[in-house]
From TrEMBL:
InterPro entries linked: NTF2-like_dom_sf, SnoaL-like
Domain annotation SnoaL-like: ranges: 8-128
Chain segments annotated as transmembrane: none
Name of the protein this chain belongs to: SnoaL-like domain-containing protein
Family annotation (Pfam families): SnoaL_4
Species of origin: Oceanicoccus sagamiensis
Length: 147
């Protein structure tokens, strides 16, 4: 058996499971589970608002999530490049939200990520989140082409 292929498959499954844990925590508003997916010195760029360190990342997430009556995130396709204990990749997502005032939004988005394996566990090292589309479900909202 080819050990390199096995390790790549194991790493890909672990990276997919990391996003699964992240998404599940978002959908359940579970801050403890959500922040556990991040490395200690991580950075997050949320729609042009960059923050560094787990405490600041958690603070921004809690602020953002506090504005929603509900938010549902569903990851779609992804690609990874693994190099030892470091990796990079991206995810496409489909999201539905309703804010506290009852305004609804459909969002198509992308995360560009770097990952680090610490103590045998993959974690997010950096995430850069951007909208591809946001607006109504009829696609009359704002579209930003992928660069």
């Amino acid at each position: 058996m080819n050990t390199t292929a096995t390790n790549n498959l194991e790493d890909e499954i672990a990276l997919r499971n990391l996003m699964g844990k992240y998404t599940d925590a978002v959908n359940r508003y579970d801050a403890d589970s959500w922040i556990s997916t991040w490395a200690e010195g991580a950075s997050w760029n949320l729609l042009g608002t960059p923050v560094e360190g787990k405490d600041n990342i958690l603070g921004l997430w809690q602020q953002m999530m506090g504005g929603f009556d509900f938010a549902l995130m569903m990851p779609n396709s992804c690609l990874f490049e693994v190099d030892g204990d470091n990796a990079s990749g991206h995810w496409y997502l489909h999201e539905y939200t309703r804010d506290k005032e009852g305004n609804t939004m459909t969002i198509l988005s992308r995360y560009e990520d770097t990952y680090i394996k610490e103590a045998g566990e993959w974690l997010f090292k950096s995430r850069n989140y951007s909208f591809i589309y946001h607006g109504g479900p009829d696609l009359s909202g704002t579209y930003t082409p992928i660069a």
